[in-house]
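User: Hi! I have a protein structure encoded as tokens and I'd like to know what sequence might fold into it. I'm fairly new to this, so please keep things simple.
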């Protein structure tokens, strides 16, 4: 089922885009080709493919959680240009 020009105009209006009639015809043809390709994908048998399948053999690499030394409050604020009651003090940016 080909994409109608009215549908392309509607989508363009939703996206606040304006096109010439020639551009609309070209876009309709391109969208029709995309939908046709998606229809071809529906014919594939994916019964044995798990939903989380990926074309690449990817896996997450996590490091072990372990307690390591951290900065004390005084060390963190040591180079702060201004500080107030133990926190960084920054200029107000919202009126």
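Assistant: Happy to help. Inverse folding works backwards from shape to sequence: for each of the 95 positions I chose a residue that suits the local structure. Here it is:
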């Amino acid at each position: 089922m080909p994409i109608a020009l009215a549908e392309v105009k509607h989508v363009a209006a939703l996206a606040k885009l304006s096109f010439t009639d020639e551009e609309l015809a070209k876009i309709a043809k391109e969208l029709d080709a995309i939908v046709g390709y998606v229809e071809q994908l529906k014919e594939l048998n994916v019964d044995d493919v798990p939903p989380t399948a990926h074309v690449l053999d990817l896996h997450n690499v996590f490091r072990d959680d372990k307690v390591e030394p951290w900065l004390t409050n005084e060390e963190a604020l040591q180079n702060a240009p201004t500080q107030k009651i133990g926190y960084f003090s920054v200029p107000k940016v919202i009126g």
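A useful reference point when you look it over: The domain at 5-41 is CATH 1.10.20 (Histone, subunit A). Feel free to ask if any position seems puzzling.
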